[in-house]
Design brief:
The complex is a heterodimer of chains A (494) and B (100). Chain A contains 15 helices and eleven strands. With 494 residues, chain A is an alpha/beta fold. Chain A has a domain of 264 residues: Alpha-Beta Complex (Amidase signature (AS) enzymes). In chain A, strand 7, helix 8 and strand 8 form a beta-alpha-beta unit. In chain A, helix 2 runs antiparallel to helix 3. The two termini of chain A are 24 Å apart. With 100 residues, chain B is mainly alpha-helical. Helix content of chain B is 33%, strand content 4%. Chain B is built from three helices and two strands. The longest helix of chain B has 18 residues. Chain B is flat, with a radius of gyration of 23 Å. Classes of the chains: A alpha/beta (494), B mainly alpha (100). Chains A and B meet through helix 9, helix 10, helix 11 and helix 12 of A and helix 1 and helix 2 of B.
């Protein structure tokens, strides 16, 4: 028999349902991999007992002949941005260290109800602000991938969902939750050779997810293949009256709807994504993707998204503005850290607490956000950015008159070494240049692995779809997956 | 538009983040780099464009007019709410003296 921890969501679920192995055996296998991988620093907290408890319940339900959920017997990693009842939730920040939620986020709650179990809480960039997982208070996450040729450099797993991408790529979990504000599911998925989808804004409830930029934040699954993502997204999504922006729509059966035949579909290729400075190997992978989708029966059309260039700067006004407002709640009063210097008053306590609790990147973004929202600058920065955002969304609306999905690279480069880009925040931001436009427009978008570059590092292709058309995105992703036949794995060194 | 040390100190104070001289000085060029880069948004002709308010059209719902319609967001959760407070007294959050 193959090693259980090599299996994905669909295979584990089927194996448990058929009695090939028990859910407990699965949980034990992944718990062991997690325990042996502390060198990757993917988890902030591990919860092997939770994984076993959920597995035992599935095994008991099966023995009793009860119906099993869509994630029955599948242990997963939970990004440490989701509040989990009784289990520390930190957003990878010192300011929330020791915070034990008294409630469960809707998304995690949905997953447990579907039969999934929790292996632990995954490391991430602090408050999901970062693209390399180098801003966590709990240390960098290290990608399981290395450059070929015996390089010893530690590589970035991407960010902000870098614990999630590392855990799945290193087979510490068959799947993990991620959140995507400006690429935080897709970019780490691309960096580590896994698959991840950000659904339409509002598909997954934000209730119980530590807020970064509320008009952009969306949860989604990260897993080995398109089918696993379809299954897990189905379990995560659904209307939630506790989130005012939750979509009151039925959740389609995305797994049942999977179909890699794209006959009659049109795939748009946005000319503005051919940016100067993009790695030629990335451009080559894009050409491969175009050929694969043609082979799947799709017609390829040239499209224009004229405001692409302005999406990233607009994002770096809007996201920090929302963050500065959202993070005002960390004041040393209600939860988390309190720093009360001797003899100081309330205002000093706020300032000291936030100085001690927030990391550098978080402070930088809170300051930018405070500045662009301050009297006299609001219209020039924030209002202008929201107008540009409307134009970016309009670009997509126009493009989707001519095509069903859009194909583009996920990232401008493959993974880079830890420490190689930390000196220049702007260079780091550019990682998300291809991912941010779909975020600003609230559209479903996914990354599918498509090959490795000359250094042996994975590359991803991105598919962006119309609002509510996750199915179209998943189907195009499947068509790529079936042709890319991505089988590369990181060699175990940890 | 660019910021100097005095402006950064003012922003940091508005954001309630204590910063020493060295940190303020380090922040000035970092923030200016980012601000001068986002300035390119000024090139975009936005005449007649309404700023976006909702990314996916949605209607704001009213919840049911009932006490504790959803127990997770209803009342009677005092102890849960205080459970993580750094200081609590008599069922309230504890803070340093506010009124002299």
């Amino acid at each position: 028999m193959t090693n259980i921890t090599d299996l994905g969501v669909a295979a584990i679920r089927a194996g448990v349902a058929q009695g090939d192995f028990t859910a407990r055996e699965v949980a034990e296998g992944f718990n062991a991999n997690v325990a042996a991988a502390s060198a990757l620093n993917a988890f902030i907290v591990t919860t092997p007992e939770k994984a076993l408890e959920a597995a035992d319940k599935v095994d008991a339900d099966r023995a009793a002949g009860k119906p099993l959920g869509s994630m029955a017997g599948v242990p997963i990693g939970m990004k440490d941005l989701f509040a989990t009842h009784g289990v520390q939730t930190t957003a990878a920040s010192h300011i929330l260290e020791g915070f034990i939620p008294q409630y469960e986020s809707t998304v995690s709650s949905n997953l447990w109800a579907a039969g999934a179990g929790m292996l632990g809480k995954l490391n991430l960039d602090q408050f999901a602000m970062g693209s390399s997982n180098e801003t966590s208070y709990f240390g960098n996450v290290i990608s399981p991938w290395k450059r070929s040729g015996g390089s010893n450099a530690q590589m970035s797993p991407g960010g902000s969902s870098g614990g999630s991408s590392t855990a799945v790529a290193a087979r510490l979990a068959p799947a993990a939750t991620g959140t995507d504000t400006g690429g935080s599911i897709r970019q780490p998925a691309a960096f580590t050779g896994i698959t991840g989808i950000k659904p339409t804004y509002g598909r997954c409830s934000r209730w119980g997810v530590v807020a970064f930029a509320s008009s952009l934040d969306q949860a989604g699954p990260m897993a080995h293949d398109v089918r696993d993502c379809a299954i897990m997204l189905g379990a995560m999504a659904g209307f939630d009256p506790k989130d005012s922006t939750s979509l009151d729509l039925p959740v389609p059966d995305w797994e049942a709807g999977l179909d890699g035949n794209l006959k009659g579909k049109k795939v748009g290729i946005p000319r503005e994504y051919r940016m100067e400075g993009t790695d030629p190997e990335i451009l080559k992978s894009w050409e491969d993707g175009i050929a694969w989708l043609k082979d799947a029966g799709a017609e390829v059309v040239d499209i224009s998204l004229p405001h692409t260039k302005y999406a990233l700067p607009a994002y770096y006004i809007i996201a920090p503005a929302e963050a500065s407002s959202n993070l005002a709640r960390y004041d040393g009063v209600r939860y988390g850290l309190r720093d009360l210097p001797e003899g100081s008053g309330l205002q000093d306590m706020y300032a000291a607490t936030r100085a001690a609790g927030f990391g550098d990147e978080v402070k930088r973004r809170v300051l930018i956000g405070t500045y662009v929202l301050s009297a006299g600058f609001y219209d020039a920065y924030y209002t202008q950015a929201q107008k540009v955002r409307a134009l970016v969304a309009q670009d997509f609306e126009n493009a989707f008159k001519e095509c069903d999905v859009i194909l583009a690279p996920t990232t401008p480069t493959a993974s880079f070494g830890l420490g190689e880009k930390t000196d220049d925040p702007l260079a780091m931001y550019l990682n998300d240049v291809f991912a941010v436009p779909a975020s600003l427009a609230g559209l479903p978008a996914m990354s599918v692995p498509c090959g490795v570059n000359s250094e042996g590092l994975p590359l991803g292709l991105q598919i962006v779809g119309k609002a509510f058309d996750e199915q179209g995105v998943l189907n195009a992703g499947l068509a790529i997956e079936e042709r890319a036949r991505f089988t590369a794995k990181p060699e175990k060194w940890w | 538009m660019s910021v100097d040390k005095q402006i950064v100190a003012k922003i940091a104070s508005l954001a309630r983040i204590q910063m020493g001289d060295a940190e303020l000085e380090r922040m000035v060029p970092e923030l200016n780099n980012i601000l001068s880069w986002v300035e390119q948004l000024g090139e975009v002709d936005c005449s007649g464009v309404e700023p976006m308010t909702a990314v996916i059209p949605n209607t704001l719902r009213l919840r049911e007019d009932a006490v504790n319609a959803d127990p997770l967001t209803g009342g009677d959760r005092r102890d849960d709410i205080l459970a993580n407070a750094p200081a609590r007294e008599h069922g309230f959050f504890g803070v340093p003296k506010v009124i002299e």
